Structure formats: C-alpha cells, structure tokens
Amino acid sequence: MPRKEPRNYKEEYGEYHAKQTQKKNRAARNHARDIMEKKGRVRKGDGKAVDHKTPLMRGGSKSVSNLQVMSAKSNRKKGIKRSK
C-alpha cells in the first residue's frame, strides 16, 4: 500500500539517530573502522565492513581481537534472521 505522505526524514532522524545511545553506537562503529584502517586491513571505498565477532549489544568488547573484516554484503546478510 503506497504512502499518502512523503517520509519525514528529519523527524525520523530526531526520533532515532539523534538519541544518545545511537550516537554512542555509531561512534563505536567508526572507532572500529579507524582501528582497522590504521592497521591497513581496510580503506575507504573498498566494499569491506569491519564486524564485531561478538556484537557489542551482546557483551562483545571493543578490542582488536573482537574485530574482523568481511565484505559489506556478507556483514549485512549475517544479521538477517531467516524463518523456515
């Protein structure tokens, strides 16, 4: 069913992305990427994603030993829950 009104992206941002918890999560993801860029494992525009082996929301650490590099497609696919 098509929307009657256009999406209000500014409102969506204010309700979700601007929250302190989301800012903290985004900062942790950016920090992980920075670490791997300094190690030479990834670079801007390479199609790679830095993944936390154990997600931060499940108690994973921010340490280098918890980070891995994978394709962006594989990383996004990893989070999809499939029902049978």
List the helices and strands and how they pair.
Elements: H1 9-17, H2 20-38, E1 48-52, E2 67-71, H3 72-78
Antiparallel strand pairs: 1-2
**Percent in strands:** 5-15%
User: How many β-strand runs?
Assistant: 2
Radius of gyration: 16 Å
Strand order of the largest sheet: 1-2
- Judged by helices, strands and strand pairing, the structural class is alpha+beta
Low-confidence stretches: none
Give the overall average pLDDT.
88
**How much helix is in the residues?**
40-55%
Number of domains: 1
Q: Count the helices. How many?
A: 3
Order of helices and strands: HHEEH
| Dominant shape | globular
**Main beta-sheet strand count, sense and barrel state:** 2 strands, antiparallel
- Straight-line N-to-C gap: 26 Å
Quick summary:
By secondary structure, the chain is α+β, with helices and mostly antiparallel strands.
Characterization of this structure:
This protein has 84 residues and is α+β, with helices and mostly antiparallel strands. The chain has one domain. 42% of the residues lie in helices and 12% in strands. It contains three helices and two strands. The two termini are 26 Å apart.
Short key terms for the protein model shown above:
globular, alpha+beta, 3 helices, 84 residues, 12% strand, 2 strands, two-stranded antiparallel sheet
